[in-house]
């Protein structure tokens, strides 16, 4: 099939490259000239493991190209994906201005029988809005609007796309089923496809991410209780996860959730609840709990430092999680300014710090974890990059002024760390 993907952000680019790799002819479109030029030069503007190699492969096979113009590309496309951003607005609602802009532009140029598939994460009723916009402006009455939310984890997106645990497709006309099955034919078997109404499909994405956010906050609060009573959250999580009704996933405590999905989607679902008079009170508590957790990170560290403002702090990892360069709502954006406001000097190392260095000011950026640990009074681990798990701990200790580590990702064994002479603190492990 000939496919156009509008939006070369994380979702659009990964989806476009993977659809090309499955045999479709794909044009990825974006109005950002700099981004399109980078892509034409075979340079990927985001960090996602394996994406650069897969992009280059499909460009060379002539399955994949990049362009600035919507009108010159979508006329020949059987399928047009909308994968533009839906950022959080001032009131917590999803900002749909980019979606509406796309719909208006698409309406002028689509051919008859085109499938417009919304890949962006959008509130309930967005497909209806897009259909209405196109119906009023298009000279063609025959087109279909479909909901197909993405479930890609940053750092594992390619595998998630080619080996999905489910593909959710929202349609209002059962005649569209076969086209959607054909679209995913080389990616997944039909039994992985869940067909729903468009509104159910839109809501599934928000509900899924909100449920995962709830689990993270739950285990974080259990971890806090473990610290008070002398229990071990690792054992608690294992015991909970062995219950088949619950399962083991997203039961790892940490500094709080961030990224482009969980905070944004939970807030948007809360606002949808307000709009339709169906309050999402549990989610409101989740958002509040996550914000409070990030604010309390600095207090935990300062307590171990006995309030000495002349201390030097090293921070390992500032992205919201490992295997990504995404800084959106990362706990580091709260923690580091809080420590600086208490007079502390900060050294930082992250394997993917290009974007972070623009957002975090007045810190000393280092090229290795060992350099970040040089002469510090405390080393803080915020992101569980694989290279941090494999550090030479003796070498690390010898670099530090005081061998104090606060590990918010629980990547080291407390017993071993004590044996090595560290003052070691982690989350929920006594």
Uncertain residue ranges: none
Largest sheet: 6 strands, parallel
Total strand segments: 14
Biggest β-sheet: strands ordered side by side in the sheet: 3-2-1-4-5-6
**Superfamily (CATH H level) name of the largest domain:** NAD(P)-binding Rossmann-like Domain
Q: What structural class do you assign from the helix and strand content?
A: alpha/beta
Identify the CATH architecture of the largest domain: 3-Layer(aba) Sandwich
Shape call: globular
- How large a portion of the residues is in β-strands, by DSSP E? 5-15%
CATH fold-level assignment of the largest domain: Rossmann fold
Helix content: 40-55%
What number is the mean pLDDT?
A: 94
Helix tally equals: 18
- Write down the CATH class of the largest domain: Alpha Beta
The tally of structural domains comes to 2
Rounded to the nearest angstrom, the radius of gyration is 24 Å
Distance between the termini: 56 Å
